[in-house]
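User: My collaborator sent over this chain with a note saying "see what the structure looks like." That's all I know about it. Can you take a look?
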Amino acid sequence: MTTVTETARTAEAARTAEAVDPAAWSCPAPLRDSPTIVMGHGGGGAMSAELVEHLFLPAFGEAAATELDDCAVLAVGSVRLAFSTDSYVVRPLFFPGGSIGELAVNGTVNDLAMSGARPLCLSTAFILEEGTPLAELARIATAMGTAARQAGVRLATGDTKVVDAGHGHGVFVNTAGIGLIPDGVDIRPARVRPGDAVLVSGDLGVHGVAVLSCREGLEFGTALESDTAPLHGLVAAMLDRGSSGRHPDVHALRDPTRGGLAASLNEIARAAGVGIDIVERSVPVPEAVADACGILGLDPLYVANEGKLVAFVAPDDADRVLAAMRNHPNGRGAALVGTVVEDHPAMVVARTAFGATRVVDLPLGEQLPRIC
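Assistant: Without extra context I'll predict from the sequence alone. Here is the result:
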């Protein structure tokens, strides 16, 4: 016999299913074709964007932010604050050149820096799986403390939760950060204009390949180490007023993490309603990265980075900014890789070494998961 409680539960389940029925959404595939979360939804590509646009934003309603950048800019009186949060689920926890600890600090510091902000403080939240060795957690916490000191930020507050064994992956970390934006600095995708120079700060794909190199079954002999690093010092150098007395006109910045350079360029192109042309042979990709991508069938433009940035700069200031980047330790390999154009708005096009062109689309998900 069906009880009153069972009937109520059935009715509630039906109401819930109706409220979130994917068939009722106005979004394209793959969300409609996937009634459950898949790894691609966390990859920073098209599936992530659809999840935000067609599930989170309607669910949040008027409480949702109007601009969907990695970092929010908040006016508090005459002061402008940058605010960002990020979660880190990288596998393995330790990899050549770093660990989840460095990533958790540097990643949020860099999100703040991409608005031109000087990072001030971070929160730290840990989700720990039961059975995780305390020695591993201590290594991660020590790495976070070291990274915070090197970045000049305080770890101001935090939280710890433990989940049952088998319901996590050792350690997940969330960090949120607050930074101060200097007067006269206005960095956001909407300011990107045709004619802007597209600059990158150095070799791409290093972090992603370094992580892949130590995964079980994916060792391919590379000696690369992750390039994870705080980038606010580099950004400050790019924005230095110098003898001109004014900040160089940097329109937008991105740290090309999940989805690599391709995802960052597509995000900016779509947000600003412009086209972007890049020259593939001008994109700095070290030989070890190119070789590893060749073995695995990956495109270096889509491989994650953790210590690099891409900048959109007004043409009159491009040479000045590029020189400032090359004079900073984190920008020695900076290069001009492309231009913003009026043609093909919201699209990124690459000129190949053979003189042909190809569309560099927003990745669907991520080539390989858990890079950050």
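A starting point for your reply to your collaborator: The CA atoms of residues 72 and 83 lie 5 Å apart.
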